[in-house]
Amino acid sequence: MIKVTELKKEYKTGKETVQVLKGVDFSVEEGEFVCIIGPSGSGKTTLLHLLGGLDTPTSGSIKLDGVDIALKSEKERTLIRRKDIGLIFQNYQLLPTLTIYENIVFPLHADGKKVPPGKVEELLAAVDLVGYEKRFPNELSGGQQQRVAIARALIHEPSILLADEPTGNLDRQRSSDTLDLLANFHLERKQTIVMVTHDMFAAGYADRIVLFKDGLIEAEVTREDEDYAKFLSRFLA
User: Fold this and answer.
1) pLDDT at res. 228
2) How many Å is the Cα radius of gyration of the chain?
3) How far apart are CA 148 and CA 101, in angstroms?
4) Cα separation of 32 and 46, whole Å?
5) Residue 64, CB-side half-sphere exposure with 13 Å CA sphere
6) Tell me, what's the pLDDT at 178?
7) Which among 128, 100, 105 is positioned nearest to 118, based on CA atoms?
8) What is residue 191's three-state secondary structure?
9) Residue ranges of the chain with pLDDT lower than 70?
10) How many CB atoms lie within 10 A of CB 53?
11) Cα–Cα distance between 158 and 80 in angstroms, integer?
């Protein structure tokens, strides 16, 4: 579903050039749940933003279902995002003047599409927020707002869900609830998910964990690998 080849990203700060990604090769299969971990500044969030078409690489390719989005214009990337990509952010990014219902359907309305009958109700049930559709974001807890953000990201049934530190602003219980929700979408609906996190507890939900360091992939492990538990304990210690 996703194939990244020799991906590089540089930023210029004054006379200096900062290499954030230094030639990354990375792929995600359809229906896979991949977690990207690493210290601050390792390049993991930059990679996620590139996968989502929010930024363009300095060089290299990013193929989503065979289409290289790195070669597309900003307008074309926006259209691809609306069709194929769901985005979840750490700070929820809900619109405060819109109700929960209006926030969830916003991506469809922005694209000039009608809301499929029963779709919002289905998502509200899935995120355990039935009866909240007329409320506003400031009337909800952080965990509830994140569940609204997840419903919004899934309203257009994206091929891939990209989550950037989705539990970063939540306590452990609300983090667990959010992660359980993502895991259910992955297992029951075969949703493809790529999640960036610094939390190894969150990483333990993934089929595959990819460790980023200094702009490159340092190591990765899958749930089937004998070293999976050892890999987790190494970073949980």
Assistant:
1) 76
2) 18
3) 9
4) 20
5) 21
6) 92
7) 105
8) coil
9) 234-237
10) 23
11) 10
